[in-house]
């Protein structure tokens, strides 16, 4: 895993010091600095209460519309991920949305040297990061908010929307290939997974190799077969090992989805039309979801109690907005046509 650049480390140090000095909270004015993406993106590091690993931060990234707007989108990334999708941000800005993203605790810009990447014991730990960011978005003048999540972020956002039912700081929910089911064989799901979940109660830090192929990452990154530029330190082709606590947190979140989610705001669930399982590189990697079972996504999405729509995208990759250009143009068209009806 590559080291953080000197610029990134310096920026993080300055942000942390100033955040501590000013005592930032969701209701206080946030001080932004130039983000690593440049091009007008800004970031602010927010200190959150410490947890079982010590200090905790989340990072807000934003870029505003040229003309004043009262609409915003908040994007929540997936597992082994962080916000880098500039094109997505620019498309939302073009549609009149102030763009915000949050790098969740222990991911991307928010990772601290004392932490294990991606570490979590309960997915509700992320709710504070979303609460904080939504409160800041509201305080900065956007009173209409679209809450969006990809993959694990889609699962987190779904659970968050259920937990905040009746107290929402958002107006609609967009789910891009939500992580509604563990991508393991059914036999292992019935045997090994329950044992891991049980053991996690007393031994959450026990590590386990997620067994993920590097092919999906290679299909995205410009230095391999893809067209996107991002930090392989924050989003390596092969994710770091997860621990039993992570497995338990995700499993319990998925069980909650299967039992039904009460979401009173409109929900759009998008997923690829097919899953793929390539063992070696081929261009088939550009044609389907190489991470999750799309049949399970569509099935579990039907457990949402509320106004929802589920749509399959032909030729979509796991992160639909990183698909080949004709496909992602269709995705954007679907998103914005829906958003015009529900975010007013």
UniProtKB/TrEMBL annotation:
<dbReference type="InterPro" id="IPR051044">
    <property type="entry name" value="MAG_DAG_Lipase"/>
</dbReference>
<dbReference type="Pfam" id="PF12146">
    <property type="entry name" value="Hydrolase_4"/>
</dbReference>
<protein>
    <submittedName>
        <fullName>Alpha/beta hydrolase</fullName>
    </submittedName>
</protein>
<feature type="domain" description="Serine aminopeptidase S33">
    <location>
        <begin position="69"/>
        <end position="273"/>
    </location>
</feature>
<dbReference type="InterPro" id="IPR029058">
    <property type="entry name" value="AB_hydrolase_fold"/>
</dbReference>
<keyword id="KW-0378">Hydrolase</keyword>
<keyword id="KW-0732">Signal</keyword>
<dbReference type="InterPro" id="IPR022742">
    <property type="entry name" value="Hydrolase_4"/>
</dbReference>
<dbReference type="GO" id="GO:0016787">
    <property type="term" value="F:hydrolase activity"/>
</dbReference>
<feature type="signal peptide">
    <location>
        <begin position="1"/>
        <end position="28"/>
    </location>
</feature>
